[in-house]
Write a structure and sequence with these properties.
By secondary structure, the chain is of the alpha/beta class. The chain has helices spanning 3-6, 22-33, 45-53, 69-83, 102-108, 116-144, 180-199, 220-228, 242-249, and strands at residues 13-17, 37-42, 60-63, 88-91, 147-152, 204-211, 260-263.
Length: 270
């Protein structure tokens, strides 16, 4: 197999959760461009179907809640009925805190006032969702003796949030990065190591991908400050992660498992 052929995903079947989000859509495109049949799944089935229609390879757009085992089992059965296999799973679905207003964001994001309901919701989607998708969909890989699971973590699973990033130019704190997202992404990295060790002898590789911040319509002062905090002096674009996704999904990373691939412009190097 040549170096180029190692990156090919022709004929492989890849499931991407959180597929209608900014990074989810980009992950789907990267896999399809490498030749994979992509199953795009998220809570909105119509939006998933739209993602798949834009891809160059045949796939499926299916609604599923990653916290609901029955829905995931139904999705698995649909995929196996159509393609008879699952080769790649990208656990990309996650929630990040959204607050009703700027005033609510500042108050509720303080650790002292952070609502336990938001904490529990993040744990359910960001951790339990990864567990359930891996259990329901990854088990089919273990049964076949081959597969790649990619758990999308974050730089905030490695380092604590720099709260000064969220301070406006006038010195007013816009909000605090709340505790749930960093906690859940740290758990994803630990779970990745667990599952890699557990399923390694079954031919299933399990790795984490830790992206840095992605530019997506944030205020100019935040984009500038984030760039100043990063050695490459900019935020990421979704395209910055396409190569990493294909690498981890393909035979190019055949001897890699239990690892955390950090692609953050150097954010965590200082």
């Amino acid at each position: 197999m040549t170096h180029t052929e190692q990156f090919s995903l022709i004929g492989r079947v890849a499931v991407v959760t959180g597929a209608t989000g900014l990074l989810g859509r980009s992950h789907c495109a990267a896999l399809a461009e490498a030749g994979a049949h992509v199953i795009a799944t998220d809570v909105d089935g119509d939006a998933c179907a739209a993602v798949v229609r834009a891809l160059p390879t045949p796939g499926l757009g299916l609604a599923a809640d990653v916290t609901d085992r029955a829905q995931l089992e139904a999705l698995r059965d649909r995929v196996l009925a159509r393609f008879d296999r699952i080769d790649v799973l990208i656990n990309n679905a996650a929630v990040n805190d959204r607050f009703e207003s700027p005033e609510a964001a500042l108050e509720q994001s303080r650790f002292e006032a952070y609502p336990v309901e938001l904490w529990q919701r993040s744990l359910a989607v960001n951790v339990t969702g990864v567990f359930l998708c891996s259990q329901v969909l990854g088990a089919t890989m273990a049964a076949r003796g081959r597969g790649s699971i990619i758990n999308v973590a974050s730089t905030y699973g490695l380092v604590g949030p720099d709260q000064s990033l969220y301070e406006r130019p006038d010195g007013v704190q816009a909000f605090f990065k709340s505790p749930a997202y960093p906690t859940t992404k740290g758990a994803v990295i630990s779970f990745t190591r667990y599952l890699a060790a557990y399923w390694g002898h079954r031919g299933v590789r399990v790795n984490a991908l830790s992206p840095g911040g992605v530019e997506n319509g944030q205020e100019d002062w935040f984009v500038e400050r984030y760039g100043e905090r990063t050695p490459l002096r900019r935020m990421a674009t979704p395209q910055d992660y396409r190569g990493s996704v294909v690498f981890l999904a393909s035979d190019a990373s055949a001897y890699m498992t239990g690892a955390n691939l950090v692609v953050d412009g150097g954010f965590t190097c200082w």
